[in-house]
Amino acid sequence: MVEDDAELAAACREKKAIVEADWAEKLPGAIRGCIAFLARAAAECDPSDPTAIHSMAGALKILAEVATTRQVLDVRLAKQAGQVRAEPFKVAS
Q1: N or C terminus: which one in the chain shows less Cβ crowding within 10 Å?
Q2: Which pairs with CB-CB distance under 8 Å and at least 24 residues apart come from 52-58?
Q3: Phi/psi class of residue 14: alpha, beta or left (left: φ > 0; alpha: ψ in -120 to 50)?
Q4: Contacts of 45 (CB under 8 A, 6+ apart)
Q5: Of the candidates 76, 45, 75, which has an alpha carbon nearest to the alpha carbon of residue 59?
Q6: 36-78 per-position pLDDT tens digit
Q7: Residue 84 DSSP one-character state
C-alpha cells in the first residue's frame, strides 16, 4: 500500500499537488468562458420558450452557487492568512 512506502507516498503527494495546481489555474478561464457562452445564449434564446427559460434559470442558479462558494473560500483563506476584510462582499452589477 502507498501508506507503507514513504517514497511512493511522497511521489503521489507531489503528483497530486501538480494536478491540483493545474486544475486551479485553469478554473478561472473556464468559468469566464462558460459565463460568456451563457451571455450569448441568453441574448439569442426565445424568452417565450419554456425550455430556454428553464435552462437560463438553472444556469443562473449554478452561477450564484459558484459566486457564493468563491466568497466563502475568500473568507476562509483570508482568515487563514490572518487578514480581515474591511468591506462586506459587493455584488457586481
Answers
A1: C
A2: none
A3: alpha
A4: 52, 55, 56
A5: 45
A6: 999 999 999 999 999 999 999 999 999 999 989 989 988 888 8
A7: -
